[in-house]
Amino acid sequence: MSDVHALVLTGYGLNCDHETAYALELAGASATRVHINSLIDGSVKLKDFQMMVFGGGFSWGDDHGGGVIQAVRLKTNIGDNILEFIEKGNLVLGICNGFQTLVNLGLLPGFDGDYKTRSVALTYNDCGNFRDDWVNLKVNAASPCVFTRGLDQMELPIRHGEGKFYSDESTIKRLFDNKQVVLQYATRDGELADCRRPFNPNGSISDIAGICDTTGRIFGLMPHPEAFSHWTSHPDWTRIKEEMKRQGGSGDSGVTVGIRLFQNAVKFF
Ligand SMILES: NC(=O)CC[C@H](N)C(=O)O
């Protein structure tokens, strides 16, 4: 059994927990799916894990906005435990609904170690509907993000209705200045999407698809790395050799960029 123990949240409409736990196991972690209530009632303890994963789905049916109720429930009941977990040097990952939750909790962007203030939002896609597609992503090699080390371009699926990254101009500037912008939507050639659809699927400001805190240990992204665990998950998998070359860096190992992201987390420990 792996020494790296990852907790994957489940319950109340989260629906990517099996896939996420599977991807973590493929990457070499030991993953446990834990119901939100088990953390709250104390039957499962965060101190037994090194990584906490807020996965995708529709927690509380997206009532009041994606991730809002999940954030309130966790903050009210185990907010201090989560802060303690972070202070210990552990990792936190938020995927899609999980990213929305991290932002609502204030764990991201985490300016100056402030993990309580909400200063960015993920809101309704500009197109007004739910998008289910594959996107190309440019990775910021200068960011401190632990999860994207060694990755430069990625192609991953998205599926969301509230993925538009939004904040005021000065906060966006601060995110770029701090190198906290980890992922941006791009064209197939790796150029920034420049807010054009379909490359930027939701109208995110500055094409932002994922950010980290200043330590690089807390990372949230709208695309789903866990949904690209095998080459055959890709819509063009029959031409996969070419895809591998285009994405660069994956070589002949056959390990997808989705799994490499989780492997980086395992390697961190
Ligand atoms: N796949 C997801 O996690 C979706 C997140 C959220 N329910 C939305 O639609 O925006």
Automatic annotation (TrEMBL):
GO biological process, one term: 'de novo' IMP biosynthetic process
InterPro entries, per database record: Class_I_gatase-like, PRibForGlyAmidine_synth_PurQ
Name this protein carries in UniProt: Phosphoribosylformylglycinamidine synthase subunit
CDD domains in the record: GATase1_FGAR_AT
Organism: Desulfonema magnum
Superkingdom: Bacteria
GO cellular component: cytoplasm
Molecular-function annotations in GO: ATP binding; hydrolase activity; phosphoribosylformylglycinamidine synthase activity
Gene3D superfamilies: 3.40.50.880
The entry's keywords: ATP-binding, Cytoplasm, Glutamine amidotransferase, Hydrolase, Ligase, Nucleotide-binding, Purine biosynthesis
Pfam families: GATase_5
Biological classification of the source: Bacteria, Pseudomonadati, Thermodesulfobacteriota, Desulfobacteria, Desulfobacterales
